Amino acid sequence: MWGPVLDLHGWITQQIDAAEQHALDHQRDPSDALRWCKAHRKILTTHAPAGGGGSDAYACEGCGYNGADYCPELNVEHVNDCPTLLALAEGYGLTKEQRAALDRPEPERPAPTGPSLIPAALAEAMYGHLLATVVGVQPVPSPRQRALEILGPELKKISGYLPSPSSE
Ligand SMILES: [Zn+2]
Description:
Layout: H1 8-26, H2 31-46, E1 65-66, E2 73-74, H3 83-91, H4 96-100, H5 120-135, H6 143-155
Antiparallel strand pairs: 1-2
Helix pairs in contact: 1-2, 1-3
The structure holds zinc ion (ZN).
Zinc ion binds at residues 47, 60, 62-63, 76, 82, 84-85.
């Protein structure tokens, strides 16, 4: 069947829709089938991606949390791996091949180029202090410090040049 690639949750939703339509179109009394469809939709409502844009946005909310109270983690990291949904999908005839071809949306990772919350100069100073205190070694000068050491005398010849306090 051609169409958008669905994740496990979407695939089951599609099967339930089709089963419901089939029951309405072809069964003299579709009430049993419709009741099953309704029950399955309730399972889908419970076992759904946690959402929220965090790193666990696609974790299964319905499978619950584990771990310590101060740092709970969702038990099933991706809703495609939810055992309840996989059992339901098995009932709708999901094959191994179909499962492998399912979409697996992942949360967007924060861009690694974002500015640090700690200003670079402060981080550098903290790092140097840490090295000197804990390890007992003097930090290797940063490329900026090295450049200022080398270029400093030349820069001071330029009128209007004001060396920054940290470079002295
Ligand atoms: Zn689940």
